[in-house]
């Protein structure tokens, strides 16, 4: 009888435990059915499908003879030590654009400075090292060494796999829109035009070698670019030299661009900084306008001409607005070409020069008077 009771007790205990295991299993199944996120997988409106890339632009790269002489080495020319402090701000963007004002025709054509520039090819190599992806070539010095200067320069840009726009070797090349396709899925067209070429004319029948500011031509190119790219950046070489504010012609051109749906205008030629602004197009679109980014790297001596800037902004494709690409998060790094460092000409972040603290604040105030929300990279 005692044995029977013990067996009966064990059987009851087993059945009880078995029921417990069954209940726990059912409970786990119930738990696993609970959502692990507050986002409903069926509700696509709660997910951000927007795409975003960053663009950086710098102003004039103007290589005077005194600059390349300071960069000369036993093996050629090396400008990298004179610019390397800016590398973190240029190499980190999706696309970085530089205005290469002096043609890199190389030693073959005879190196020279103002007024008819011809620069060492090494400045192109060093810009590539810094993180520059595109050079704009339409400016008043494009024809300083004629078509030979353009041809030599483009051959070297192609050799180092640098994208370029604004000057060309052939008519066919000039008719192609430069479109930069990014892995993020946003394509960017980059156009470049100049007000003139210091009175130097292109050879007869070869006006295509440099893009000039002509409204009909620009309108056609912008329309073509809109068919090929999600965003358009327009590089304009215009304005009065050494003037801290844009003239009426600059404002009219920028409005012309905004009315045609350009995403951003990057300006240069005044060799000094001019304020940034938002310009509204006729369709209600908002375009970023940087009238002049000043000199990034040059041998010009007076203080205002030593001040330049690195402009960075993001391009965001908005899924809720028919995939329109808009400029967001504009930010700025003020630069200064110093002769007080290890090198005779050296581009440095202005905010890192203690003796220029007061002048730095003046430049910030100047840049933001029409765009108070502009941030500074400090």
UniProtKB/TrEMBL annotation:
Q: Which residues form a coiled coil?
A: none
- Which InterPro entries does the record cross-reference, listed alphabetically? Capsule_synth_CapA, CW_Biosynth-Accessory, Metallo-depent_PP-like
Domain Capsule synthesis protein CapA intervals: 54-300
SMART domains with a match to the protein in the record:
PGA_cap (SM00854)
Provide the family line: Belongs to the CapA family.
**Database matches in PANTHER family:** CAPSULE BIOSYNTHESIS PROTEIN CAPA (PTHR33393:SF12), POLYGLUTAMINE SYNTHESIS ACCESSORY PROTEIN RV0574C-RELATED (PTHR33393)
Q: Can you say what this protein is called? A: Poly-gamma-glutamate synthesis protein (Capsule biosynthesis protein)
